[in-house]
Amino acid sequence: MTQPNMPADFFWGNSVSSMQTEGAWQEDGKGLSVYDVRPATDHTMDWHDAIDEYHRYAEDLDLMADMGMNMYRIQISWSRVVPDGDGAFNEAGIQYYSDLIDAMIARGIEPMVNLYHFDMPLALAKSDNGFMSRHTVDAFVRFGAEMFKRFSDRVKYWITFNEHNLYFTDEVFEISGYDHGERTLSEMYRIFHHTMLAHARLDAIAHTKYPGLQLGGMLAHAATYPATSKPEDVYAARKLNEFLNNNLYDAFVFGRYSHEVMHYVKVHEIDWDYQPEDASVLSKMHADFLAFSYYRTDTVNADKIPAGEAPNRYLNTANETNRFLETNDWQWTIDPLGFRTLLADVYSRYRVPMFPIENGIGLHETWDGVHEIADERRISYHRDHIQAMKDAMFEDGVAVLGYLGWGLIDIPSSHADMEKRYGFVYVNRSNHDLKDMRRVPKKSYHWFKEVMATNGDKL
Ligand code: BG6
Predict the structure, then answer these.
(1) CA of 118, closest atom in ligand 1
(2) Best of 17, 22, 294, 358 for a ligand 1 pocket test (most atoms within 8 Å of beta carbon)
(3) What are the residue boundaries of the structural domains of the chain, listed by start?
(4) Whose CA, among 12, 64, 219, 442, lies 20 to 30 Å from 181?
């Protein structure tokens, strides 16, 4: 059966973070973030130069425009704009984003802005232990509110926290500016709750002061399957999904946490700094869209869950290989149908437009300096995922606003640096050799250009 045409206003584009693209870690008044002080080792790079987009954004935007992208999700780096996190605003940093946004608009590229992507200003990590403290919440709301004020005339689409549910996993201690403590479950829940309060307060400001602005919540949604049809596995997958995904979607859409999470906190006497007035703060939330990253699916085996484990931590021990799926070199499964299932499930539960804003495959690639990189595997990954999304839209009736790939110009990966590339455009640097940072289109560049020229018709 021929599928209908995609909506004329569908977004196609690319998504990145500041620290994975900009470089210029000490330029024009930028303060340090926790990423800036991560030392290089034999196997890892420092993040000082990234792909130098701070100086090369015009060239990168030209490539995006040439491909036909009509959206680019960037991040405004908190420490570039407020060097110590809570003091004076750095006008030179703000000017950089203003110029970048203007340059996008001039090329017909709609900006989406994210406000936090794991790179806490170092000063707040040291003084306040990052999002462990409510003072950091206040500082973040102040920064975000100022960004709405400066840019809402040109930026309509906003998110606050990248992959907000990671703040409910053990990764929280790496990504929230957490500097010291015992890494307890209570601390994890406290940081998570603080970040939700920050989101809720910014959500209220956005929707009361800037009526045209669209703000959504964003998750890392790696859907989890039961390892078998054994009821214990099915139950574990359901419970995990309730904690890691529904709990946040409930908050974004209904303004309250999942009752199962609230019950768990009460029964287990978790001290998560939930104050009486917080319910009212959370209740103000309203999501214009539900955004998420999607790379893979996971599988949970209930037999491997230690007794008494908190449901949001199940995957620490119980993640199992899915023998039905192929993986990339980092054992991330390739699962386009999982993408469709997720879109259909979440939309059916919330009826809020869905927005996949990160999708892609990391591959080992080295350019020989002459020949085009023939990244067939990347082409088939995106082709299959876009087709799955179209099936969700046209067969299951899901409203989808757009499709943004992750890091479609090579950027350092969060776990494997320049060894793991996602781009349609190669960036000529390695972990320890900056080379010339030349941008070189891969085969997938031309393929995706045609996809966008036909608005997703020709895959
Ligand atoms: C997302 C993050 O989890 O996945 C990105 O938002 C990250 O920062 C991306 O780069 C891909 O993961 P990785 O580890 O392969 O870079």
Answers:
(1) 8
(2) 358
(3) 11-453
(4) 219
